[in-house]
Amino acid sequence: MALISSIDSEDDYNRALARLGEILRAAVGTPERDERDHLIDLLEAYEEPSDDVGLPSVHGAIKSHMERLGLTPGDLAPLVGSQKAAVAVLSGKMDITMPMARALHKHWGIPAEVLLQEPMNQPEQ
Q: Is residue 123 a part of any domain in this protein?
């Protein structure tokens, strides 16, 4: 498959997502791993929110990522500690911790800016 060098349209974006799904778990040191990292960078740049639109919620960004790649709460569980935690994070009932944010950024490429934002609906202090 030809290396995707840029994402300039929705079709490019969909092709990049499909390819990322194929090589998501590529082993370190392989050409596929390098391609995976390259695709994650391209996808993040394409998805980068504009200044006019707020960031997606943490659980919304995680759910969106999972839907695009056909992942399940079972796929999320190792990154957040348990199946119960995965369900709580996805429902918005539990905020992610710093180790969870690191794992989601490292393994799934979700932008740190999204993962580290202040939780919404916090009571004012």
A: no
pLDDT 10s digits, 91-120: 888 999 999 999 999 999 888 888 998 875
If asked whether residues 60 and 44 sit together in one domain, one would say no
**pTM for the model:** 0.55
Q: 93 burial class (0-12, 13-18, 19+ CB within 10 angstroms)? A: exposed
By the 8 A CB rule, do 63 and 69 touch? no
Task: Indicate the residue type of 70.
Answer: G
Which residue range forms the structural domain that includes residue 92?
Answer: 54-118
CB 73 within 8 A of CB 83: yes
